[in-house]
Design goal:
Helices cover 33% and strands 25% of the residues. By secondary structure, it is an alpha/beta fold. The structure holds ligand PMT. Ligand PMT binds next to α10, α12 and β16.
Length: 399
């Protein structure tokens, strides 16, 4: 993993982690990169331009209107020079500016003027990281192919504990040296279920649940980004139909099962993220039920378990389930892993309304026969990327 002859523009914004910038420059140059540094005004309060000039071997700019700097290498030229633009640390404020396309200083202007891929290494207080505005900004940037590196968990400068620490300089240099969108799943076929199912009671009523489809759709996008050929079997949701993904829209659990089975034969990986209704009414009535009685009794029968049917095929794909639990997360998830003969299960605590059903964020604990990994609270798009990388690793090991 090297960066030989790669031009890296390092943008440093004003957070305490800026003091690590000189070390980051060293780690990048040790991999063979040419590094030029741009600071925001507030970054100069945390790290001296002179030390960055000394380690990078180039003058350091922070002023869009600096005549000398513009004469040496104008900002448009600098934007074109960059092969990669890394912003580390990236503050919540800078992330917001980037999201809205502001260009009121040198670094934000460079972000608009470059066509180089942009990498963000966030660093902020954990509460600011969790803030809805920050997460919405990150979700927007992810759609624009801005790559998020981190943040790490741990103790923060302010004494809080949680996500928001900048990754260490060595980790950032290593990540920058790996291909940006490694096509790790190229040639693999993946089927994913998403959203709720609706089970009709009569022509105007149904039972269903609060699944929005966001988690499953984010997984489909993450799998596609890794090069997979993706089929998404989706229950009724209010999400835009993703491009370059084969989307099959269904309503009921039985329709979902049929669509999955039609596509599963040459499929390598199956992920059941849908919140499939466990029961349907035994006898759907053709006319609207009249409210003539004070009480109404309906009899429900069990729906097919799609995940179990896939895992029990004679040649099953690598099968990943989800477990939506409100208590005993580990015990119940491990029970499902074994009972349904799965390769992996991602458990989420759906008693917490900030994550899980119909929310922007989620948190997962992933179990497989001899291991487990906790994926901390984050936007569903970021979590989906992390989960797909884990699925790819386990799938490749078992192939
Ligand atoms: O859609 P979002 O709003 O983004 O919310 C995401 C989510 C909370 C729905 C998702 O993260 C999740 O947990 N999905 C699984 C929901 C669920 O039905 O869990 P379960 O523990 O009841 O089911 C276990 C597994 O069996 C799941 O993989 C489910 O897809 C599968 N199953 C369940 C019943 C059934 N009849 N057929 C199935 O395939």
């Amino acid at each position: 993993m090297h960066l030989k002859d790669t031009n890296i523009l390092l943008g440093v914004t004003g957070g305490i982690a800026a003091y690590k910038a000189p070390d980051l420059v060293r780690k990048l140059t040790a991999k063979g990169a040419n590094v030029r540094v741009v600071l925001t005004d507030s970054a100069t309060e945390f790290v001296s331009p002179l030390s960055l000039q000394a380690v990078s071997g180039h003058s350091v700019s922070n002023d869009l209107l600096d005549k000398d700097a513009e004469a040496a290498m104008g900002h448009i030229e600098l934007a074109k020079w960059a092969d990669k633009l890394l912003i580390a640390p990236a503050t919540a404020n800078f992330i917001a500016k980037l999201t809205h396309g502001l260009a009121d200083d040198l670094l934000s202007t460079l972000c608009l003027a470059t066509d180089a891929p942009i990498y963000l290494a966030p660093a902020m207080n954990q509460q600011m990281w969790h803030a809805k505005a920050t997460q919405a900004n990150l979700a927007t940037l992810a759609k624009r192919d801005v790559t998020l590196l981190g943040p790490a968990q741990g103790e923060q400068a302010c004494g809080d504990v949680g996500p928001g620490r900048m990754l260490e300089p060595q980790e950032l240099a290593d990540l920058l040296a790996t291909p940006s969108s490694p096509q790790l799943l190229k040639g693999e076929k993946i089927t994913i279920t998403a959203g709720p199912t609706r089970e009709e009671i009569d022509p105007v009523r149904y039972i269903s649940n609060h699944s929005s489809g966001k988690m499953g759709y984010a997984l489909a996008q993450a799998a596609k980004d890794l090069g997979a050929e993706v089929t998404l079997v989706s229950g009724p949701v209010n999400l835009p139909t993703p491009e370059n993904i084969n989307v099959i829209k269904v309503t009921s659990a039985e329709q979902m099962l049929n669509a999955v089975m039609k596509n599963i034969q040459d499929c390598n990986i199956f992920i059941g993220c849908a919140a499939v209704a466990d029961y349907r009414v035994q006898q759907k009535v053709d006319q609207k039920i009249k409210k003539s009685d004070d009480e109404l009794t309906l009899t429900f029968v069990k729906n097919p378990d799609i995940l179990k049917e896939v895992a029990n095929l004679s040649v099953p794909p690598f099968t990943v389930g989800f477990a939506a639990e409100t208590q005993n997360l580990k015990e119940y998830a491990l029970g499902k892993l074994q009972r349904k003969k799965l390769n992996m299960i991602a458990a989420n605590d759906v008693s917490d309304t900030k994550i899980g059903f119909n929310s922007e964020q989620n948190a997962l604990t992933v179990f497989w026969p001899k291991g487990e990994l906790k994926l901390e609270v984050a936007d569903k798009q970021l979590l989906a990327k992390q989960l797909m990388l884990l699925v790819e690793q386990r799938y490749t090991e078992q192939k």
